[in-house]
Design a protein that fits this description.
Shape: globular
Family: In the central section; belongs to the 3-hydroxyacyl-CoA dehydrogenase family.
Largest sheet: 8 strands, mixed
Pathway: Lipid metabolism; fatty acid beta-oxidation
Bound molecules: 1,4-dihydronicotinamide adenine dinucleotide
Structural class: alpha/beta
Keywords: Fatty acid metabolism, Lipid degradation, Lipid metabolism, Lyase, Multifunctional enzyme, NAD, Oxidoreductase
Helix content: 40-55%
Pfam families: 3HCDH, 3HCDH_N, ECH_1
Catalytic activity: a (3S)-3-hydroxyacyl-CoA + NAD(+) = a 3-oxoacyl-CoA + NADH + H(+)
Number of strands: 18
Radius of gyration: 28 Å
Length: 727
């Protein structure tokens, strides 16, 4: 066996070999070259010693069972590596295939997370037992990184579950299952409560199945639910690509298409040919741009963000035990739920006990749904609700070690509520405001300890949205910043750190997207095409419908306040062509958005969206006007990306990773790009290519597309915004 073995061979003389996955070079096992060599050596030995072997158990010495592909390798795979990537995949596949056809029972004793490659190893075993431990997740999440499972995962899930279930339950969404839910979905065979129980069950399986074969190798096997060669199945098949196309809405995500193709084509041929088909589709993805962008964002940037690169290092971590949430409206209620879910005691305060109780009822509703779906138990529901205490009397906040304020967006009111409670909560309590537009520096003037005051900008709906923007005011101290960071992590959300400035980072950047969409309507572009362009660019929300959700009056109010501030400071407000369109839609036609019953869309009385308002075409379309479709898509993406560069330039944001993650998780910048700055790195021709395209857009549509100096300089120096991996 090679010296650098990552698989330990253990044998007690009873004929059962335990293969312990334990890569000595890293904290988790990955599918690297050493693993592949070890696997080959191990399977050779199993084959050679088969007469003395009764069965095989595969388990791991690490906290996770097996982490999957080595993303550091995958992100470097360029088109020149196509052959190599294909071969590497085939090598692992061939060994796993030999393992499952040895004629000996092989059991996966899954002692921790088995995602991606980890679950693919388990799929090549005849029996899968998972330990019911916290953090034990099972599934094939490759699609969320722009890839497909290339270790036999498509071939085997299709044969295990059938084409439809494999696609819908496992492959296309990349769902990560808890052991119990994995059992229900048919992904594993048993759940064990303890490691001892797991190993005993593994042995019991070996004892009772001396000559295991995989279901797909058994005589008379047929793929569950049929294959395209069955007439009945074939009749339903066209629905798949059609649904997929509809779901993707033309957005440039190659992975789902390749997964579909690998599953359907692979189901019509024998196992070995299917493996080759899977390897081809995998290779195409791994050498492409999208997987690199997504790996960059969801792995490297996410790691940088979570590891706290923007958190002051010197401050020791502290845990919040009791939090005071001020204001039990939409945001306060959601914040209370998220804190209680993380085990924190919450006092939810509003002007009356009834109002506070209404806020708590929001948690009860969320939990009722979770219980009904089996995501939580009635006991956990009761415990979580028990942690939320509604209150009207400020005295109830005594001893809180953090305050999160979410009352109406009124600086005077915010000052008043902090005055009321600052001497009641713990003397060193962290003071946070969830304001969406007011300067943190200004709000901090209203409290005695401005250094402990920080912005904590949540997104709606709070229970679903993973991002929190931490806003550092001029006087915010390192201690408060670090504690805010830790609190966001404690409630299992993702923090990014932003310096106080108008619109912070996310609202400012998304404002560019919305303005650009509206501006195109003003230029006479077909509104339906504008919406379609947003969808095809990969935005989860279409631009005009998003504007309607936010209401047209809100950005106008913010704009007017900002304009006043700029002009009072002696500056000139940079007029945006969208402003005149919004003003006209509100003032001339009285349309203010969905909550007002009419906006860019028409709505039914029950709030249902009916259609784009025909008046848009009537009043704004111009003869001969029109924006090329490709320009429409790029104008939205460029408007946001260029503004993100300006945010870096102006020190509003200081980390590339924060910008990328914040843009995807907070404001729906298309995930295939890898985030708002990674989009620039990945643009055709790199930074110089992006700069020259920005100049074209500038010439055609206005100076807001002028490339900022930071971008021009970086392009000239041959640099990128990729400061995390350096890849
Ligand atoms: P909301 O109107 O739903 O709730 C505000 C709550 O504050 C009401 O329940 C009200 O009774 C309560 N309140 C008023 N005076 C109070 C006092 N003296 N003491 C305690 N409670 C008092 O408002 P929403 O949407 O929850 O917004 C709250 C804050 O969050 C605002 O600053 C808003 O800008 C910000 N925000 C809102 C977002 C959104 O999507 N709605 C997103 C991010 C931030």
């Amino acid at each position: 066996m090679p010296e650098s073995t990552t698989i330990r061979w253990e044998q007690n003389g009873d004929g059962v070999v335990t293969l312990v996955l334990d890569d000595p070079s890293q904290s988790a096992n990955t599918m690297n070259a050493a693993f592949s060599a070890s696997l080959e050596a191990v399977v050779d030995r199993l084959d050679a010693e088969r007469d003395t072997i009764r069965g095989i158990v595969i388990t791991s010495a690490k906290k996770t069972f097996f982490a999957g592909g080595d993303l550091r390798d995958l992100i470097r795979a360029t088109p020149e590596h196509a052959e190599q990537a294909f071969e590497a995949g085939m090598r692992v596949k061939r060994q796993l295939r030999r393992l499952e056809t040895l004629g000996k029972p092989v059991v996966a004793a899954i002692n921790g997370a088995a995602l991606g490659g980890g679950y693919e190893i388990a799929l090549a075993c005849h029996h899968r037992i998972a330990l019911d431990a916290p953090g034990s997740k099972i599934g094939l999440p490759e699609v969320t990184l722009g890839l497909l499972p290339g270790g036999g995962g498509v071939v085997r899930t299709v044969r295990l579950l059938g084409i439809a279930d494999a696609l819908l339950k496992v492959l296309l969404q990349g769902t990560q299952y808890s052991p119990k839910r994995a059992l229900d979905a048919g992904l594993i065979h048993e759940v064990a409560a303890t490691p001892e129980e797991m190993l005993a069950a593994a042995r019991a399986f070996i004892d009772s199945h001396p000559e295991s074969v995989q279901p797909w190798d058994a005589k008379g096997y047929r793929i569950p639910g049929g294959t395209p060669s069955d007439r009945k199945f074939a009749a339903n098949l066209p629905a798949f690509p059609a649904n997929l196309t509809k779901q993707l809405n033309g957005a440039p995500y190659p992975a789902p298409r390749n997964i579909l193709a690998a599953a359907v084509e692979g189901a019509q041929v024998d196992f070995d040919t299917a493996q080759v088909i899977e390897a081809r589709y995998f290779t195409e993805l791994v050498i492409g741009r999208t997987s690199k962008n997504m790996i960059q964002a969801f792995f490297f940037d996410m790691q940088a963000v979570n590891a706290g690169r923007s958190r002051p290092e010197s401050v020791e971590a502290r845990t919040v035990r009791k939090v005071a949430v001020l204001g039990a409206g939409m945001m306060g209620a959601g914040i209370a739920y998220s804190c209680a879910r993380a085990g924190i005691d919450v006092v939810l305060k509003d002007v009356s006990l009834e109002a506070a109780a209404r806020g708590k009822a929001h948690s009860a509703r969320l939990l009722d749904k979770a219980v009904a779906k089996g995501r939580t138990t009635p006991e956990e529901r009761a415990a979580l609700l028990g942690r939320i205490t509604p209150a009207a009397d400020p005295a109830a906040l005594a001893g809180s070690d953090a305050v999160i304020e979410a009352v109406f967006e009124d600086p005077q009111l915010k000052h008043t509520v902090f005055q009321e409670i600052q001497d009641i909560v713990a003397p060193d309590a962290l003071l946070c405001s969830n304001t969406s537009t007011l300067p943190i520096t200004l709000l901090a003037e209203g409290v005695k300890r401005a250094e402990d005051f920080v912005g904590l900008h949540f997104f709606s709906p709070v229970d679903k949205m993973p991002l929190v923007e931490i806003i550092k005011g001029e006087r915010t101290g390192d201690e408060a910043l670090a504690r805010a960071f830790d609190l966001v992590r404690q409630i299992r959300k993702t923090p990014i750190v932003v310096n106080d400035s108008r619109g912070f980072f996310t609202s400012r950047v998304i404002g560019q997207f919305i303005n650009e969409g509206v501006a195109m309507v003003g230029e006479g572009a077909d509104p339906a095409s504008v919406e379609q362009a947003a969808a095809q660019a990969g935005y989860p929300a279409k631009v005009l419908s998003l504007m309607d959700e936010l209401t047209l009056t809100l950005p106008r109010k913010i704009r007017n306040e900002s304009r006043r501030a700029v002009e009072e400071a002696g500056g000139v407000w940079p007029e945006h062509p969208a402003e005149a369109v919004i003003d006209r839609v509100i003032d001339e036609f009285g349309r203010t958005g969905r909550s007002g019953g009419a906006g860019f869309y028409d709505y039914a009385d029950d709030g249902r969206r009916i259609r784009l308002w025909p008046g848009l075409r009537e009043h704004f379309a111009k003869e001969g006007a029109g924006v090329p479709f490709e320009d429409m898509k790029e104008r939205m993406l460029f408007a946001e990306a260029l503004d993100a560069v300006r945010c870096l330039e102006e020190n509003v944001i200081t980390s590339v990773a924060d910008a990328n993650i914040g843009s995807i998780l907070g404001i729906g910048f298309p995930a295939w790009t890898g985030g708002v700055l990674q989009y620039i790195n990945g643009y055709e021709g790199g930074l110089p290519g992006f700069v020259s395209r920005a100049r074209e857009l500038q010439a055609a549509y206005g100076d807001r597309f002028a490339p900022p100096k930071l971008l021009i300089d970086k392009a000239a120096r041959g640099e990128t915004f990729l400061d995390v991996t350096g890849a």
